Amino acid sequence: TAGGGAGPKAAQLVSDKRAEAVLTGNVGPKAYTALEVSGIKIYTGVTGTCRDALDAFKKGNVKSVSGPTTESHTGLRS
Question: How far apart are CA 15 and CA 13, in angstroms?
Fold first, then answer.
C-alpha cells in the first residue's frame, strides 16, 4: 500500500540494518538498483514463511539475480 517508491524505501531500511542479503519473491528495478548500490545480494523465487525462506537459502535452493525480476509498479497492479 506504500505506492511508488516502496522498493527503494525498503532497500534503505535493509541497508540501514546492515543486511548482507535479501530473500524475496521478486525485485523491481528501483529496489534492485538501491540494493545493488548498497552491496546487498538479492535472492529471488522465495515463497512461504521466513523459516521456509531461510531453509531454502541454506540448502542453495534460491537464486541470486543480476537484474530486476519485475517491471516498475508491479505490486500496484490488481
Answer: 5
